[in-house]
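Quick note —
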Amino acid sequence: MNRQDFPILQEKVNGHALVYLDNAATSQKPQEVIDAISYAYTTFNANIHRGVHSLSKQATLHHEEARERVSKLLNAKSANEIVFTKGTTDSINMLARSFGESFLHEGDEIVISAMEHHSNIVPWQMIAAKTGARLRVVRLTPDLTFDIDAYCDLLNEKTKMVAVAQVSNVLGVENDVKTIIRRAHEAGAVVMVDAAQSVPHMKIDVQDMDCDFLVFSAHKMYGPTGVGVLYGKENLLNQLPPAEGGGEMIEHVSFEKTTYNVLPYKFEAGTPNFIGSYAFSKAIDYVDKIGWEQLTQEEDRLLRLIEEGLIDMGAVVYAQGQEKRGVLSFNFPGIHPYDLGVLLDQQGVAIRTGHHCAEPLINLLGVPGTCRVSVGLYNDENDVKVFLKATQVAKLMLS
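Predicted structure written out below.
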C-alpha cells in the first residue's frame, strides 16, 4: 500500500499534514476507486438490465461482475445472496420491514445488544411497534464485552430475530458471533450480523460464520458512498417479500396483480447505483492486493500502540485491554471530548467525538461522549506518533 494512492492524504489541514483517524465514520478512497467512477460515467453510463444497446449491456455486465466480486469477498454460496442497497442502515431497514411482515407477530421477540449502533436499534423498534413484538437487550459485562450468559438466558421459543454487531463502532470489541449464531439457531431464531465495522478490518466468511443475514457499507471499505450490501441465505431471501416496490423488482405488472422478480432483483427496486457497485469492486481489488492478513495485523498493531500511548497519558480507554478491531474510544477526566477533538483538528488530526450514533451505550458509560480513534489501511506508525503528540499538547492546553 502506498499512501500516495490516496489523494486526500496529501492535503493540508490547518497548515498541517492530514492525519486521518476517523475511518469508522468513512474511509478515504484510493485513486483507483476515484478513477473507476470517472471511467464508468464516461464509458458505459446507461441504465442496466433494461436496454438492448451496447452501453446498457456493458453497464449490466459490470454491475453483475461487482455482485460476484462481493459474493467472493464474503464467501457466499451464490451471487443471488447479494442484494445491493444504499448502505448498512438501508439494509437493516429493508430486512426489518421484510422480515417483520412475514415472521413477526405479537409477543415475538427481537434480541439486540447494548452496544448497537442506532441503525441496528431504531428499525427493530419500529417494526416491533407495528407488529406487537418485543425488543430484548443483552447487557454488557463489567469489562464492556457481550455477556454471552445473559444472552443465552434471553433466548426462548419466542425469539425470532437476533441482530448484533460483529465489532462495536464505539468500543472496537469483536463479538463471538459464531457462538451467538449457534445459540440462536438452537433456539430456532435467525441472526443478522451488522458487519459495518468488521468488513473493512478482517476477512469475512458467511458460510463459516453461518449467519442468516449480514449487512455492511462500501464507503467504510474504501469504496464510494451510497452503496451497501444485504447478504442473506438464498432460502430465507426467497421466503421474504420485497421491502420496496417499483421497477426492476417485478416480473409482471397489471392493475389486478403484480408478480415479483427472482433473487436478488426482487429486493432492488428502481435503478441501482451501478456506477458505485463498479467502483466498489475496484476497492475490493485494492484491498485484496494488500492482503487481508497483513492488513489486519498492521491495524491491530497500530491500535495497540495508540491504546498504550493514551493509557500512559492517563486516558480512560473503554474496554481497556480487550482485543479490538480498528476502533477504540477514550476520554481524559475533566476534559470534554469535543474540546479535545477541536484542538486535534487544529493540529491536522481528524478523530470523531460524540455519541457515535450509539447513545444508549454512551449513556451506559456515564459520559457525554467519547473521543474515538479508528485506523485504516493507509495509517502508519508516524500517524500514531503525530496523534499522540497532538493529544498531549491538547491535554496540556485543556488541563
